[in-house]
Here is the input.
Amino acid sequence: MDEAYSPLQLLLFGTPDVRVDGVSVQRALSHKGVLLLAFLALTSGRPVSTSVIADAVFPDSQSEDPHEVIKKIVQQVRRALREEAYRLSTPAPRMLALDLEGALCDWAVFHTMCRESRPESLRHAIALHSRPFVETEIYGWIGAEQARCLRLRQEALEKLFRLALESADLASAAQCLSEQLLFDSSFITLKEALWRELYALLLQRQEFSLFHFHYLQLRAFLDRTAGREPEPETQALYQKIPKAVLIQILKAKERPRKSVLPDTARLPNFPFALLGREEQKRELKAAFTHSRLWTVIGTGGVGKTRFTVEAGQEIATDLKLDVGFIDLVPASPETVLQIVSATLGIKERFGVPLTLSLQEYLILKNVLLILDNCEHVIEAVAELSAELLKGCPNLHLLCTSRETLRVDGERVFLLPPLAVPTLSIPEGSVIAPDRLQACLESDAVRLFCERASAVISNFAFTPQNAPWSSNSAA
Here is the structure.
């Protein structure tokens, strides 16, 4: 059903949201009101006794009269739903029902689409289930439904996998398996036989390069999540690639090549050399391999972008990584994902979450991404960074910000201001030539003079303006 024509929208995957005429009414609903709607949605319109609801949904309210508790919650929910309040009815004493006819409930659409066999419907189902059912809660009935939805998602992907094999589209078949790996790390434990089925067909069609690519993906994933190699049967299939062909594939990967990232992600060029940061660069390069997420923090104007670009370029060269730059100045919390995707040339696909498309794009690339100016969208960057690092074992992130991301595994590099010489001479005074030379050896003063010369062509650092120039450099 098209959301635009749904007066009531009940969105239960991820953090629940309830919308009336397209406007969220979450603030008018209590936590318990949202849980009540979620529970009743699972009953598909069938009446449920308030005793059952109290036991399942509100077990922590047993010290109160459960019927009175539910009565108050129902009144609140009806007020929040406004003209859609009629949907929450009392068909009999101490019974409740939720009528979702004509409404949009992503959970209901997901279950309907999973029962179909058309690729479009299955893709839609997978896209709806990009996050777990009511992921913010831990009640027993929610956990049971989360497990059920996860199983249905796996089955939908397997259907897509089979359809791709039937149409001899082995690349799409491999993509189905990769998508499930990104979403559920336990999937491979149960389904490695599916990879072997794909590998056998790739061998049969002599698509050795594609086989090699996806085998490395599988092996990297297993090493990262389970600390093990592929099963012996899987390794045996890989060993059937002719050695001469495998050598050619590996040699091809060693040849100089163009960056795997688009020109839109190329590093910016700066008109001035980086001054006074050699020690900090050495420190960051020496520590960089300790984490895949680093945040360079410092005050505004301290030179974080300039430093991070040059350090990142040198790190990428040392570690044989492709490096890309994404400027988040124009981003809002709602557009961070879109800006990152657009910079990398990722387009939205019907039925596929954009985050998943990004993970697919980056999963086997050896890439260092510089995310610049994160402080005004810190939470959105933190959430996206965690998702990308989780699904992309070869990805490194180097962020600049005035504050930390507060993400597990993050390492912080503090970039201090350049040191400025202390003259202790009032402005307007003249300093001795030997002290003038000492000032010129200061990186902060040299940087100031360089920038001043770009604006004033005949600028010179003199005994007369040295105190003023030094103060300005500070």
Summary: The two ends are 61 Å apart (CA to CA). The mean pLDDT is 83.
